[in-house]
Amino acid sequence: MTFLILGVDAATWKMIKPNLDELPSWKRLVEECKPGTVELKEDPLSPLIWCGMFSGMYYNEHGHKEFVDDGDIVGRDDLDVEFFWDELDMDVRALNVPFVVPPYSYNVDFEPVGYGLPTTEEEWNEELEKVTEKTKEVLREGPDVLVSVFTTLDRVQHFHWGEDMVLDWYKEVDERLGELLFDTGFLEDEDNRLILISDHGFCSFGEAKVQTLPEETEHGKLKGDHHEEAVVITKNVERSIVEPQDVYRSVMDVFG
Ligand SMILES: [Zn+2]
Q1: Cα 161 to Cα 130, 224, 240, distances in angstroms
Q2: Rounded to 10 degrees, what is the CA torsion of 129, 131, 137, 138?
């Protein structure tokens, strides 16, 4: 049995639900698993949310919200936080988890693409490819828990929210989800558990309650920013995931 937590940074129902006919893997997941929405009460900042998701702590406990603090890049060791992989005496692996840059891996040898901030189409493709291949490789080894995160959609949507090309990248992610969850037979194994989750949704830049990046960047003007509604889909997970910390609790329900 493997408990897989697959993160799709910035995935939003706004893009998925109206396009299910073009997103066959998402469609199957919605039909065959338990879809839901996480309404964030904390600020929709990726480091803050991913950190809470895997530590079970709230911001007032873990105190982490930015990749850079006072001009210094925040690393894993700067955080006074225990994640479930630190606490559990099991085979727990994590790869490309973006609560810090470059994203963090645990018991997996993985080098993030573009320092974890892929910016060109080439890098987006490379990340999808690399995360998929590594996730498949680790799944074959049968760990108790595996956390794996795609960051591509966050980057695409910051630069291109509202453009047709955003859907093209959801289709790319859809293909990878099909490879990972269906082609490998992962979801056919009744013992396996899945949480597929985003850390926040997306909206136009001006609509966002919290501005997570400056509008002008070295790569051009940003068109989108984070929104409080995140996506969640579960299979064989008893606890309802209503906030990011419930991911930690779900793992602890089984292994803690
Ligand atoms: Zn994010």
Answers
A1: 24, 5, 30
A2: -170
pTM above 0.90, yes or no: yes
Domain span at 218 = 3-255
Residue-averaged pLDDT of the chain: 96
197-224 residue pLDDT tens: 999 999 999 888 888 888 888 778 889 9
Distance CA 88, CA 83 (A): 9
Give distance in angstroms: CA of 24 to centre of ligand 1.
24
Nearest to 213, CA basis, from 170, 173, 161: 161
Report the CATH number that the domain containing residue 66 is assigned in CATH.
Answer: 3.40.720.10
The encoded tokens of residue 161 equal: 């929210």
Rounded Cα distance between 167 and 117, Å, is: 20
Ligand 1 centroid vs 232 CA: distance in angstroms?
Answer: 14
Residue 244 has, within 13 A of its CA and on its CB side, a CA count of 30
190 CA distance to ligand 1 centroid (A)? 30
Euclidean distance between CA atoms 223 and 197, whole angstroms: 23
Q: How many domains does the chain have?
A: 1
> Ligand 1 center to residue 185 CA distance, Å?
28
